[in-house]
Specification:
By secondary structure, the protein is an alpha/beta fold. It has one domain: NADP-dependent oxidoreductase domain (TIM Barrel, Alpha-Beta Barrel). It has 6 helices and 4 strands.
Length: 151
């Protein structure tokens, strides 16, 4: 049995309802690092639950050069850090999830085989070391797609 949760309360409710979960899918990205502080995570892991990250590119917002959030200060900071490190925003975003010790698996969405190939190539590369905390956004209007305006 598996669940996809948006919040810690969602995860806690699923643990209470099902007692044993095989896999939990959670939103994790270099901009959305909230999951690392969830107290329910160690509880889930203690029961052998696999923790899988989803939305690692924040539906493309973290890596896109043109998006409704391109001018957001937190996105701009991410792109600036990538530039300073000699990396693409995609490489930096992937490096973050590779470094997240609380994750067992990562799911990514792609629109082409070429994108998948690029992601796989970056995944195989050695991860950069960063001060990840400084890239976390605390703006729910950015990191929670449920808050985004409908178009």
């Amino acid at each position: 049995m598996g669940v996809s949760a948006y919040s810690e309360s969602d995860l806690m409710a699923a643990i209470a309802a099902f007692e044993r979960l095989d896999i939990v899918q959670l939103p994790v990205s270099v901009l959305d690092q909230r999951v690392a502080d969830w107290s329910a995570l160690p509880e889930a892991r203690a029961f052998g639950t696999l923790i899988q990250a989803r939305s690692v590119l924040l539906q493309g917002v973290a890596v896109a050069t043109k998006s409704p959030f391109s001018d957001h200060p937190d996105v701009a900071r991410l792109h600036e850090r990538a530039r300073d490190a000699g990396l693409s925003p995609l490489a930096l975003a992937l490096d973050f999830v590779k470094a997240a010790s609380y994750l067992d698996e990562v799911a990514v969405g792609v629109t082409s085989a070429a994108e998948l190939g690029e992601i796989w190539g970056l995944w195989q590369a050695e991860a950069s070391q960063q001060d990840w905390d400084t890239l976390a956004s605390h703006d729910l209007n950015l990191v929670d797609p449920r808050q985004w305006p409908s178009t």
